[in-house]
Amino acid sequence: QVQLVESGGGSVQAGGSLRLSCVASGLTWRSGCMAWFRQVPGQEREGVARIGLVTDIAVLADSVKGRFAISQDNAKNMVYLEMNSLKSEDTGMYYCATGMGCTLDTSGYNVWGQGTQVTVSS
């Protein structure tokens, strides 16, 4: 059974940086993608970034291009989201996910972490 656990969230002022981590346990395949999503109460979950587990190809949402970066450490089964120049609109619960979809849509992912909260104050 695959489990994902996120960490690294917190409170930061606008313009600051955070690095989120996601560790995957029980991952027995190396295909598909890992992704980061975020959600604000009352809104749909939004895809932020995804990376191919084999291809290492990264795709970022337009709203975070130039500010965020996604990377992975295959040996540690870790995925990271480096967030710079944070804005108040980046506030939300950030979720790590894995699946075969390799999109920025939630339908492509079937395993989710519990989330880590990011709060950006202006």
The portion of residues forming beta strands comes to over 45%
Instruction: Estimate the mean pLDDT confidence.
Output: 95
Q: SSE order, as H and E?
A: EEEEEEEEEEE
Q: Decide which structural class fits the backbone.
A: mainly beta
Query: If helices are DSSP runs of H or I spanning 4 or more residues, what is the number of helices?
Result: 0
Total E-strand runs: 11
Helix content: under 10%
Are there runs of 5+ residues with pLDDT below 50, and where? none
Largest sheet: 7 strands, mixed
- The gyration radius over C-alpha positions equals 13 Å
**First and last CA, distance:** 40 Å
Shape: globular
In short:
The protein is built from no helices and 11 strands.
Fold and architecture overview:
This protein has 122 residues and is mostly beta strands. Helix content is 0%, strand content 51%. It is built from no helices and eleven strands. The strands form two sheets. Strands 2, 4, 5, 6, 9, 10 and 11 form a seven-stranded mixed β-sheet that branches. Strands 1-3-8-7 form a four-stranded antiparallel β-sheet, with no helix packed on it. The radius of gyration is 13 Å and the shape is globular.
